[in-house]
TrEMBL record:
Alphabetically ordered keywords of this record: DNA-binding, Transcription, Transcription regulation
Recorded family membership: Belongs to the AfsR/DnrI/RedD regulatory family.
Source superkingdom: Bacteria
Keyword NAD: no
High-level lineage: Bacteria, Bacillati, Actinomycetota, Actinomycetes, Streptosporangiales
Protein name listed in UniProt: BTAD domain-containing putative transcriptional regulator
DNA-binding region: 1-97
Keyword Lipoprotein appears in the UniProt entry: no
InterPro entries linked: AfsR-DnrI-RedD_regulator (IPR051677), BTAD (IPR005158), OmpR/PhoB-type_DNA-bd (IPR001867), Sig_transdc_resp-reg_C-effctor (IPR016032), TPR-like_helical_dom_sf (IPR011990), WH-like_DNA-bd_sf (IPR036388)
Length: 645
């Protein structure tokens, strides 16, 4: 018996004939058990994964699917004898097949072997050739399958590049040109792939084409991403130009994700990389998830809990850079917490709860998820205080901070959280969390319009960052200084609006390569809009501006600036309530301004009610990065509009 999921889900008998697995739900149950890699999946989890809104008899239907799968996979099993392929285990089911009988497991094992030993490259090539399409291709809409597809596709791309690197390092690879050319065309953002293609072209005697490939890579990186090629590509170009002997390739060890590292070492490395920003930050998230998955595969709950909770990297923004990875971490933490049970070690439970709170960024959550994350934050804080563990407490308070955006007007609350983190981090020598505390307090002071206090926190954060080697701090404080310039541009004798716009643009250039897309997307257009509102100017209408997640709230004002009032009215009617995040006051103020301009009294009244508690704050300034001006201004306009008539 063989099961394949790298493509459409199927099962094959030993003679190669296909097993009739039944309908889509039957195949999804089997696929979900494959994804668990031999671990038990509870009935409750299977029901939740199969149905977004489970029917009343969902458990009964699931049992029917399992029974049908057992008959299909073990047609010759004697009556009343226990199943051997899909077994009942505890409160759920598990798939019991040797790893070599499941294509996805063969692939992952071949990749792991090739990472450790280049001699395993042939097996890796065979495993890559077994892919028939996207993993779990006929389970398109299920969130669990989407997460697995994303994870496995990243591993597949890594496998393609690892195989090419090993072959090139061993003196082969001239025949890889077509394969790597297609790979680069499909995935042009993968910088190492360009280097591999150039090496393959050089190996095939096509030096001019190899150099042209590197020039194309540089053009793409600079024009599309604003990035210069990395040191590896620059060194490769020089080696090709000079005919360096190193291009002939002595066999080298692969140092890709997870190579020779267990989960403990990998997560330690990921924590270090996370503080460096840029590509290192992106790699750290990926490596962290790989470490968690490796720990889960050991079946050691205590190890898994420690690995999940060890990534106590301070987090300042309420929108995730990679929501799918964050959700995967949250799911793993919740699964491990459940398995540990209420009597599990308190320190591990606290770290898992804090991880859930930190990774559940409020801008990305539904109402139920938000309440669950807020509860996790409070539980983590309570456990950490009982344990009297300062390092654990600052991590838990980071989660409390990220879950403190329940409504507009809570800047003072966040300042108190930041002050406690700062006290703990200073006394107990936790410099990374001291940086976090300064940034939290900068944001709070910015929201309250206290630019002197915010500037003091910015300077202190920069001093700490020089010690801790945290380059992202200067990116954030650069945005704060642009925000302060924008505010002062409304004062007599202050800088011009053009100067403020130039400061925002410089801050945007620094942020573009910082590895924080959750923060970056839409921020610059929103800053320009805020600057225009400060000066009573219409919204910017440049069609090339990427408004990112803020588009629904900005669009009515953009349409008004284009004299498209009826379209603006329609857009305003469709505007949802803002996510509970750093920008909620700003989004409410944009709604209020559009409602006032269009005379929509009901919407104006709704915005006015939402903003009352934030009357002493500045819109957008809770980010510490931009401002739309005092909330009181928008509040007064909305109140007047709502009461007109």
């Amino acid at each position: 018996m063989r099961i394949d999921v790298l493509g459409a889900v199927r099962a094959l008998r030993d003679d190669g004939s296909a097993v009739d697995l039944g309908g889509p739900r039957h195949r999804e149950v089997l696929a979900r058990l494959v994804a668990a890699e031999g671990r038990m999946v509870t009935t409750e989890t299977l029901v939740d994964d199969l149905w977004a809104d489970p029917p009343a008899r969902a458990v009964g239907a699931l049992r029917t699917f399992v029974a049908a799968l057992r008959r299909a996979l073990e047609p010759d099993r004697p009556p009343r004898s226990p199943p051997r392929v899909i077994i009942t285990e505890g409160p759920g089911y598990a798939l019991r097949l040797p790893r070599e009988d499941v294509d996805v497991h063969r692939f992952q094992d071949a990749l792991a072997r090739a990472r450790r030993n280049p001699d395993a490259v042939t097996d890796l090539g065979t495993a890559l050739a077994a892919w028939r399409g996207p993993a779990y291709a006929d389970v398109p809409g299920s969130p669990w399958a989407q997460r697995e597809r994303t994870r496995l596709e990243e591993l597949r791309l890594e496998g393609v590049e690892l195989r090419a690197r090993i072959l090139l390092d061993s003196g082969e690879g001239a025949d890889l040109v077509a394969e790597l050319g297609a790979h680069v065309a499909e995935h042009p953002w993968r910088e190492p792939a360009w280097g591999l293609l150039a090496r393959a072209l050089h190996r095939a005697g096509r030096q001019a084409d190899a150099l042209a490939t590197l020039r194309r890579a540089r053009t793409m990186l600079v024009d599309q991403l604003g990035l210069d090629p990395g040191a590896d590509l620059q060194r490769l170009e020089m080696d090709i130009l000079t005919g360096s002997a190193s291009l002939e390739g002595a066999r080298t060890a692969w140092t890709g994700p997870g190579a020779r590292f267990g989960p403990r070492t990998t997560v330690d490395l990921a924590r270090t990389l996370a503080l460096a920003g840029g590509d290192a930050l992106v790699h750290s998230r990926r490596d962290r998830l790989a470490a968690i998955q490796a720990a889960e595969r050991t079946g050691d709950l205590s190890l898994t809990a420690r690995i999940i909770g060890a990534y106590d990297v301070p987090a300042i923004w309420s929108r995730a850079d990679d929501p799918e990875q964050s959700r995967a971490v949250v799911v793993a933490a919740e699964r491990t917490l459940t398995a540990l049970g209420p009597d599990g070690p308190a320190d591990l439970s606290a770290r898992l709860l804090a991880t859930i709170a930190v990774e559940s960024r409020s801008a990305d959550l539904s109402g139920i998820e938000l309440r669950r994350a807020q509860q996790a934050a409070l539980q983590a804080e309570a456990l950490a205080r009982d344990l009297a563990d300062p390092a654990l407490l600052v991590f838990a308070l980071n989660g409390v901070f990220l879950q403190s955006f329940t409504r507009p007007g809570l800047a003072a609350v966040r300042d108190r959280i930041g002050a406690e983190i700062l006290d703990l981090a200073t006394v107990h020598e936790l410099p990374n969390f001291a940086v976090l505390a300064r940034l939290v307090r900068l944001q709070a002071a910015s929201a309250l319009g206290d630019l002197d206090a915010a500037t003091s926190h910015a300077e202190a954060a920069e001093q700490l960052a020089a010690i801790t080697e945290a380059p992202l701090v200067s990116v954030l404080t650069g945005w704060f200084r642009a925000r302060a310039t924008a505010a002062r541009s409304t004062e007599p004798g202050g800088p011009t609006a053009a100067t403020a716009a130039a400061h925002y643009r410089a801050a945007e250039n620094a942020l573009r390569t910082a590895g924080m897309p959750g923060l970056h997307r839409g921020l610059f257009p929103l800053a320009l809009l805020g600057l225009r509102l400060l000066h009573d100017r219409p919204a910017p209408t440049d069609p090339h501006l990427d408004w990112g997640p803020y588009r629904p709230w900005a669009r009515p004002l953009v349409l008004l600036a284009q004299d498209r009032a009826e379209e603006a009215r329609t857009a305003l009617a469709a505007v949802p309530e803002p996510p509970r995040d750093h920008m909620q006051e700003a989004m409410w103020c944009l709604t209020a301004r559009a409602a006032v301009r269009l005379g929509e009294r009901g919407i104006a009244a709704h915005a006015e009610a939402a903003l009352r508690d934030a009357c002493a704050e500045h819109a957008g300034a809770a980010s510490g990065m931009l401002t739309l001006g005092p909330v009181a201004r928008y509040l007064a306009e909305a109140k007047a509009c709502a009461g007109a008539g």
